Amino acid sequence: MPSTPKNTTLAAALLALALLPASRAVAEETPPQPAFWAPHNIIVDLENLPKRYSCDDLWYKFHDVLLKIGARSDTQIVPYRCNSRSPRVHLQFSLPKTLSGPEVKYASLKANTETIRLAAGEPRSLNTSDCELLRQIKTTLLPALPVRVLSYRLTCVAPSSSQRSFYVSLQGLFPASQRAQVAVHDRGWPKREPSPSGVAPNG
What we know:
It contains five helices and six strands. The chain is of the alpha+beta class. The protein has one domain (33-185). The chain has a six-stranded antiparallel β-sheet, with helices on one face. The longest helix is centred in the N-terminal third of the chain and has 24 residues, at 5-28.
């Protein structure tokens, strides 16, 4: 049966609607932006944690969190007062910062705005007993960084079976070339570079 003008118009309208989401998705994609590594030097004071963390525990957990939020791999992490309920961690690291206008010539990398999630197993070193640690990272470390917390669930006083769902979702700049490195890192432990004395100071 030959197509009528009415059928042809309807088919064209349906095709346009089908293509709309794809076109919108393409339009919303932003290309990587020129950026450079901006240094950060932060001391995090943790208070009244429900468990004690060794220096190695603190080093791995903060190292993994920093990589997860886009930090360069050459982080320097020195934990103090280890094996206490109120340790201190000194962090020196770099995060991407975008450049614009004439400053673009100083760019050393490309970076994308992305949304990431911190939770038990994300990164691998965080586990179901780290809810309060993540809560204090959210209130002490994240506000000092160029990231935006989108949502979170940190009901750390709940029974342990409920704590498995704790998380923080945030948005920040992520190096375009580092996504694959973080994915590989989350599948295995990184090699920790020893301090000159062989162990991190206890302070």
